[in-house]
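#help-structures
NK: newbie question, is this the right format to request a structure? protein is Proteinase inhibitor I42 chagasin domain-containing protein
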Amino acid sequence: MPLAPESRLFPLARLASALLALAALLVVGCASKPDSESSAGSRENGVLVLTRDDDQRTAEVRVGEQIRVRLPEKHGTGYVWAIDETDRQRLALDSTGFEDPTEGFIGARGMRTFTFTARQPGEVVLKLKHWRIWEGEGSVTERFVVTLRIQE
């Protein structure tokens, strides 16, 4: 027995509805920014502060602006945060320091702080590594990478 014309249209209507729903999801997905592309860091007294949460993200700064990177470090283990790679023409290291934990027990994590100043416009990829210097690259336990877009 042949199908009535309206019964052949029903699967096409369902397919069309599904395609419209898929197209709507694609439009919404393309319009929103993933976290990895949202602006990194927070501003504190005119200084851009970056933390572990900002790994693999991008931030915009202006020439002359300071950038402070704060990463947890267990000072007594021999593992320290160090600069792995950066563009020293565009980004100058002002200081580095370690803050002991204010609470907790002996051996608790403190905070390693690097302070930089943006010197020239351009894009800089700042790479830090957590390692034991005397053990070399094989001792790297963690990496931190942030892209800085420096503007006039």
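mod (FA): yep, format's fine, and the tokens are attached above. Strands lie at 42-44, 47-50, 57-62, 66-73, 80-85, 91-99, 110-118, 122-131, 142-151.
NK: thank you!
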